Amino acid sequence: MIIVSCKTKSFISEEVIYSVDDEAPVIDINGSGRSSANNALFTDEQILLDSVINFSEKYIGTPYKYGGTTPGGFDCSGFVQYLFSSFGIAIPRMPTDMAAISDKIDYKDIRPGDLVYFKGSNINSQEIGHVALVVERNGDSYKMIHATSKGVMINDIEQYDYWKTRYLFATRFKKETLLKK
């Protein structure tokens, strides 16, 4: 764990450079609890997204809760919103609204930090029923972290016909959304 306090400082943690706001009393970048990275100044969107992804993994196994938005239980969009809000990024609660403030991207261009959207239980519907955060890209496939009925987990889309047949599209948050503080 690295703890930084006081005036503006830069430090290297796991080969990532962070700058800390001089107003921040204490920043616990690698510790537990809601990320105090809210006060960190991220200048590169991929560094920020990597931090969100790393933070997300601590919630693997958290139970599913319909309408849940806290570590006591998450639904899919509550989980995604919680992750980004933990880094001071305000995004909408509903997946359709998340998609509306993002840029659609081609499947082949999906990368870590993007959101992927799926049909719900009705495979014939074209409405968004589920959202997940991409955590890794492997050739033509990707892994995603999401709150499912079995709790928060990471899945490789290629290993699950359920998700492959329900895939709708992917989006990427605009840089202004991510780096706006």
What would you say this structure looks like, in words?
The chain has 181 residues and is an alpha+beta fold. The protein has a single domain, classed as endopeptidase domain like (from Nostoc punctiforme) (endopeptidase fold (from Nostoc punctiforme)), CATH 3.90.1720. Helices cover 22% and strands 35% of the residues. The protein contains 5 helices and 13 strands. The chain has helices at 45-56, 76-85, 95-100, 161-166, 175-179; strands at 3-5, 9-13, 16-20, 26-28, 40-41, 69-70, 73-74, 102-105, 115-119, 128-138, 141-148, 151-156, 167-173. The strands form 4 sheets. Strands 8-13-9-10-11-12 form a 6-stranded antiparallel beta sheet. A 3-stranded antiparallel beta sheet has the order 2-3-5, with no helix packed on it. Strands 1-4 form a two-stranded antiparallel ribbon. It is globular, with a radius of gyration of 16 Å. The model is unreliable at 1-39 (pLDDT under 50).
